[in-house]
Each structure stands twice: as C-alpha cells, then as structure tokens.
Amino acid sequence: MPNIKSAKKRKKSTYKKHICNKMSKSALHTALRKAKLADADVTVKLAATSMLDKAVTKGIIHKNNAARMKSRISKQISQTI
User: Fold this and answer.
1) Cα separation of 73 and 58, whole Å?
2) CA distances to 28, 41, 51, 54 from 47, in Å
3) Which of these, 20, 22, 74, 79, has the minimum number of CB atoms within 10 Å of its CB?
4) pLDDT value at position 38?
5) How far from 10 is each of 19, 20, 58, 60, CA to CA, in Å?
6) What is the pLDDT of residues 3-38, one digit of tens each?
7) Is residue 80 scored above 80 in pLDDT?
8) What would the DSSP string read from start to end of 36-59?
9) Angle, CA 21 vertex, CA 19 and CA 27 arms, to 5°
C-alpha cells in the first residue's frame, strides 16, 4: 500500500492504463479470431491488420509481434485469392 501521495496517484493511473490496454487487447484478439475464421471475406482480414497497426502505435503490442500476425493474415489472403 503506497504511503506517498504521488505513489497513490501513480497506482491509480497505472490501473486505468491497465484496464484500457486490456480492453484493446481483447478487441484485437477478437478481430484476429474473426479474421482467422473468415474464409473469403478479405475486408475482415484487412480490418484486423489495421487494428494491429493501431495497437503498435499505441504501444499495446510489440511491432515484431504485429508484423508476424500481419504476415500470417496476408498469407491467408493470398491463398484465398
């Protein structure tokens, strides 16, 4: 339990960021799951890649992790076309 006033504020702000990041990751995983299940729908897969880019810019996931996921999605798109 923090005793210093700034530590209490930091704990509160860290918790808020944690909740926001958790919601963003959950939405991202849902989009990736939908992209994986969507056989011929390219727009769903492109939406997932844009969500990955946004997550990287916000610092939610690492850029190499996003690049790997985007590569897998692009492979799926090329196989369907």
Assistant:
1) 21
2) 10, 11, 6, 11
3) 79
4) 85
5) 14, 15, 19, 19
6) 999 999 999 999 999 999 999 999 999 999 999 888
7) no
8) HH-SS-HHHHHHHHHHHHHHHHHT
9) 105
- Indicate the pTM of the whole model: 0.80
Q: Is the dihedral of CA 3, 12, 25, 62 positive or negative?
A: negative
Reduced to 3 states (helix: H, G, I; strand: E, B; else coil), residue 1 is coil
- Architecture of the domain made up of 5-80: Up-down Bundle (1.20)
Region at 63 (left for phi over 0; alpha for psi -120 to 50; beta for the rest): alpha
Residue in the block written with tokens 């056989």: 39
pLDDT per residue as tens digits for the range 35-78: 988 877 889 999 999 999 999 999 999 999 999 999 999 998 88
Question: Distance between CA atoms of 11 and 18, rounded to whole angstroms?
Answer: 10
